[in-house]
What we know:
Strand order of the largest sheet: 1-2-3-7-4
Distance between the termini: 42 Å
Order of helices and strands: HHEEHHEHEEEHHEHHHHHH
Bound molecules: flavin-adenine dinucleotide
Structural class: alpha+beta
Number of strands: 7
Helix content: 40-55%
Largest sheet: 5 strands, antiparallel
Strand content: 5-15%
Amino acid sequence: MSLTHDQKAEITAARERTATTRRPTAPALEAMLFNAIPVLDHGFIRVVDYMGDDSAVVQAARVSYGRGTRKTTEDEGLIRYLMRHWHSTPFEMCEIKYHVKLPIFVARQWIRHRTANVNEYSARYSIMDKDFYLPAPEHLATQSSDNRQGRGNVLPPETAAHVLQLLRDDAEQTYGHYEEMLEESGIGLARELARMNLTLNTYTQWYWKTDLHNLFHFLRLRADVHAQYEIRVYAEAMLETVAAWVPLSYAAFRDYRLGAVTFSAKMLAALQKMLAGQPVDQSTSGLSKREWAEMLAAVGR
Ligand SMILES: Cc1cc2nc3c(=O)[nH]c(=O)nc-3n(C[C@H](O)[C@H](O)[C@H](O)COP(=O)(O)OP(=O)(O)OC[C@H]3O[C@@H](n4cnc5c(N)ncnc54)[C@H](O)[C@@H]3O)c2cc1C
């Protein structure tokens, strides 16, 4: 993670400032506030602000006047009920704002999540940092033969070293040309044009704000084992922050979304036959070979 001395000093100063408030706060998230959690080789994620906690979800669901006098177990039961039955609007009462440093190709996947507010570092106005993502050798793998969106075997060490050299050389060369084209070098090409030459592994930064419901949707897709490793590691770091922020909602999310499986009507019918000891196989189930394999994998067969 590459934070400059000045950036670290700003974070330290921000963490030293405190204020009293009547609003609910989450002590475990307060302890993490502003600190950067390292992700990939130069990236990070840090929480810069938030609103609400588990009690805000409960308060909205009950449309109550205050925190109420109910026990934590009752709140937990209500939150689990809301999550289980897709009663999602109470989760929209909580908001969180992240500062993220991420490679451009990861940002391109991330930005598809439209239900967030985003402000990205302006490469029209500022000069991009010379930070490129170079994967660790164990993350350099061949194209998967059975999944067009996945990776297969890890590259042999000498091939991985060659690939890393290509990635490094290309990024260095294009960044060198970027600098050469800018006004600082005398050519004076506008920053908004010079940036087009940068490689997709160049790091960008943004502030990203969303509500808990939409954050869960993002995490459900991006913390999934099928998500690309380079975005999944960001989602995993965000899960740590959510666990600290809203522990009851987080536990319900882990149970009913992240660790849950959806069966189609045909899958359910096939499983019911299996449980009843009736004969059923892929050809009689109405499921495709792939669906049948996915269903069996989900039930550990
Ligand atoms: C494993 C994986 C592979 C993917 N592969 C590809 C790919 O090959 N190509 C590609 O282009 N994308 C790909 N995507 C991106 C994917 O199609 C979605 O764009 C992305 O996951 C964001 O999901 P979302 O639209 O549900 O999220 P959000 O944009 O955050 O929206 C959340 C929800 O709000 C609602 N919503 C938001 N905007 C609208 C709208 N305009 N109209 C109606 N409802 C709306 C929908 O219910 C939506 O589910 C992939 C995503 C994943 C996780």
